[in-house]
Prior knowledge:
Blueprint: H1 9-21, H2 26-44, E1 50-55, H3 59-73, E2 77-83, H4 92-102, E3 109-113, E4 126-130, H5 142-153, E5 157-161, E6 183-187, E7 203-207, H6 214-217, H7 221-227, E8 242-246, H8 254-265, E9 270-276, H9 277-284, E10 291-295, H10 305-312, E11 317-320, H11 328-344, E12 348-350, H12 352-359, E13 369-371, H13 375-382, H14 390-404, E14 407-410, E15 415-418, E16 423-426, H15 438-451, H16 456-478, H17 484-499
Amino acid sequence: MILDDFISVMDMRAIELNANYLGVPNLILMENAGKTVADIITSKSKKTDLITFFCGLGGNGGDGLVAARHLASRGYKIKIIIIGDPTLIRSEETQLNYSIINQMKSSLNVEIVKDSSELKEYSSEIIVDALLGYNFKGPLNNLLKACVNKINESNCYKIAIDVPTGIYADTGETFEEYIKADLIISFHKPKLGFKEKPKNFGEIKIVPIGIPPETEIFTGPGDILKNHKTRLPDNHKGMFGKLLVIGGNSMYSGAPTLTTLGAYKIGLDLVYTALPEKIANTVSGFSPSIITLKYPQDHLTEKSLELIEPFIEKVDSVVIGPGIGLNTETKKAVNNLISICEKRKLPTLLDADALKIFSEQKRILNCPTVFTPNTMEFKILTGIDTNLSLKNKAKIVEEEAEKLNAVILLKGNTDVISDGFKTRYNQTGNPGMTVGGTGDVLSGIVSGYLAQKVTPFEAACSGAFINGVAGDIVFNEKGYHILPEDLIIKIPEVIEKSIKGKLKKIIN
């Protein structure tokens, strides 16, 4: 996958969370970051130099504490200024490193400053800014402002860890006071705000800290964190997405039901489900939350669109296909529906029978679209067999996604997801998920994210991960005796554990 060399704050947080999921904890990342800073300082200083660290209470401060420890172990003269009340340290990793520093009083000089009046004049050869880091959103409080001014007034070489205090990492925007660093040691990738190098930025050095490349190649809990919408007290109904599910026929009611419930479980506000009147009561019986749009025909026809089309104007995304059938009249209606969605530029997911119907048109799409084919459906869509190595399969999926101007989520032992330019993989899930209906749940999750304004590529990545992990949790509980409704029950657990950094990798 080719990503922009510059990285946003949220993408950096997601990558770190994915690293944790792969077994690289924050403690290791902090240790690597601190040691790297110490190595660079060693190359720029003499052991007779006094090096002063200004350390905050978060992860950036923890990086500084690690660097100070490494330098002390090499015989350097180190002074550490802890800015704030150490009892308020929330990061477990920073707390651990603070405890270690407290036991090094013979080799380190540690001072705690809780008020700007306690700040002194600091005479050092090098001052290290480890106050805030990339998560800073501003504004600075009075104590931090005073620290910035003290550091800037010092006639010494100034080093900032990751991002200088007072600069917003995503934009490079500077607040009233910010550290005018001579050197910025930034981790993993340059931050987005470095694109337009702000005035008074010094040299920027980008260093690796052991984050595996797989954090950006494979889906993980970081994808969920990026796309999660937080509910606030003043939110109202509709702000978290409205979806229209169009599927089912007189014989099949299960598929659209599973799609609808899958979408609700990621946190949508409203899901309308359009289907034949004959099966509407059956579908409504699964949950009182399901809002059915009942058309009198036994299957979708162009006449059915008279009922459905007004709702297309109300929703944020549409999913077409679960259990819809391949009746000749239905094919005409589906093609009309796709054209309506294109006129509105409405994010659309085409699955199952709708995907097969669209494949007959041999054209590109003019609205944000996700296809979710299995291997057989992919061959119908593109005419290409994907019984290939993963690398070759990915190349084909990327090429076909570009041709269709859409995102393809090719389901398989390892899912392949591509928008024609970026390609990622999902390794969650298990053979028990070959049971019918799990793909309908996936369609609900992905289209639910589309309704929440998540990009089609990100929606497909998040959906594949959630659906697979939900299946893995069920497998751990009951083996291969999996039903698709079991996955639906587990969706909230997967999301909540992901955003809290508590999801553990399940190995089947």
